[in-house]
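User: structure tokens for Delta(8)-fatty-acid desaturase 1-like, please.
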Amino acid sequence: MEGERKYITCEELKEHNKPGDLWISIQGKVYNVSDWAKDHPGGDTILFNLAGQDVTDAFIAYHPGTAWQYLDKLFTGFYLKDFKVSEVSKDYRRMASEFSRLGLFEKKGHGAMYSILIITTLLHLVVYGVLKSESVLVHLVCGMMLGALWIEGAYIGHDAGHYQIMSSRKCNDIAQILAGNCLTGISIAWWKWTHNAHHIACNSLDYDPDLQHIPVFAVSTKFFNSITSIFYGRELKFDPVARFLISYQHFTYYPVMVVGRVNLFIQTFLLLFSRGNVPNRALNIMGILVFWTWFPLLVSCLPTWNERVMFVVASFTVTALQHIQFTLNHFSGDTYLGPPTSNDWFEKQAAGTLDISCSTWMDWFFGGLQFQLEHHLFPRLPRCQLRTISPTVKELCKKHNLPYRSLSFWEANKSTIRTLRTAALQARDLSNPVPKNLVWEALNTHG
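Assistant: Done. Predicted tokens:
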């Protein structure tokens, strides 16, 4: 009976936000996810960030309808007493329900098949060109094709990581390891760890790892206060080294993107050989060993060291296009401090995200991520459906007076450089005292 229900307030729910005591609310019912955190497929970071509040919108975004049946065993018996659903959230939930009714989450299209075909073709051409040709120009082109192969592989790994490309979770897991670890050398475990946190806390300076690139980049002057990264669990120190590097970040942006892949390799090893809990650690390490077997072997087949260096640099340079795209989507978006809150899921995603406008025939190049806001709102939606829902998302943003930013690739680059330059010029202000620190933290590591 309604009168027999037990209620807690939002303030009481907030008290349950620590490891070992993690409560959340979904559509008014309160759940204890303390024990579930270690087994959560999306990792425990998400639950730590959202614990103590209503997570209905985030749950709808990330989980299929079949997930609701597993909530009952986590139910505390309490209901949330005084939570008010915003009008934006109501519209978002109706939109998600309508997309589900239309079957858009199940209509996966043939994008994955085309990507696999492209990857297979490029891999054969690269190997054939390296082994059978003595032309320096052919070897240069092969290096560039390898970069394109890595880009397509990353898109496959990304889609599989969001369980978009296949109906079976096991098949998606296999696709992740093959496309991520084996093909690109980037651990899918590392990617999930950072990417899920990024989605949940989009453009939070202290919660979103995709913005925490001190001392190389700072998209906001708030980093000059040496804020603490909740994700990495350490202080992001703005010391003399950081001041110097950030002062020229609008000039170093593109060169850093070229060598950014090296940082991803390092991050992969740091996580896989850390003492923390890494899901499927052994499988991830085996996949990385596959990459570090075939890639050095392929490079060693080139006749001279000059050609080997040229080959690697060419592949990294092409892949930098993808690294640039990832930063264009968020570097010039609105930022904030603190965790995401329960009732502004849609607003935070819209404020911190930038779409890249392009023709339909260029969708393959961006892997669907040109519709970044649409992807953030509905991460399980197959990439072939993102253009379909774009007008609906745009209309909802207009209805609630929220930003819907869609720029050309060129304009997005200008916007990002402008953001970096603004922070760079302020970093040069010598009247701003810098705490002394001799530790060189040139890589965004987790310690």
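User: Anything notable?

Assistant: Confidence is low (pLDDT under 50) at residues 435-447.
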